[in-house]
Design a protein that fits this description.
With 121 residues, the protein is of the alpha/beta class. It is built from four helices and five strands; from the N terminus they run ββββαααβα. The chain has helices spanning 51-57, 64-75, 78-91, 109-120, and strands spanning 2-3, 6-10, 21-24, 42-43, 96-100. A five-stranded mixed sheet has the order 1-2-5-3-4, with helices on one face. The chain is globular and about 35 Å long. The two termini are 17 Å apart.
């Protein structure tokens, strides 16, 4: 999925050089992936949802709208703002792929971040 130069993909998908910088936006390292095999340009743990929010959400599609609202509130905190600004700086230099281990990227934090980045472009 893409918003202009902002793409969203699963970390388990094959890396595509044409999709720009690869940034993992999960707080927890994905299972079964060796760091040297991830082909990451960056890992921004602090831009990911808090552990409490992630556990509450559980990738339940019915909770996605409320998750987005709560997640955006977290991104308004000092730590969240700083991490999102880092992400904006990376995205401002060209194409970017936001990576997540989530099974359904359409209801993931990576999708929320892609939408936010598209709003700031």
């Amino acid at each position: 999925m893409a918003h202009g130069n902002v793409h969203v993909a699963r970390i388990y998908d094959e890396a595509q050089d044409s999709k720009g910088k690869r940034v993992l936006v999960d707080r927890v390292w994905p299972r079964g992936i060796k760091k040297e095999d991830a082909h990451l340009d960056d890992w921004l743990k602090d831009v990911a949802p808090s552990t409490d929010l992630r556990k509450w959400y559980g990738h339940d599609a019915e909770r996605f709208d409320e998750f987005k609202r709560r997640y955006r509130e977290e991104l308004d905190s000092d730590t969240g703002k700083e991490a999102f600004e880092q992400l904006q700086q990376i995205a401002g230099k060209g194409a970017i792929t936001l990576l997540t281990a989530s099974k359904d990227i359409d209801i993931s934090q990576a999708r929320v971040l892609a939408d936010l980045l598209a709003d700031f472009r």
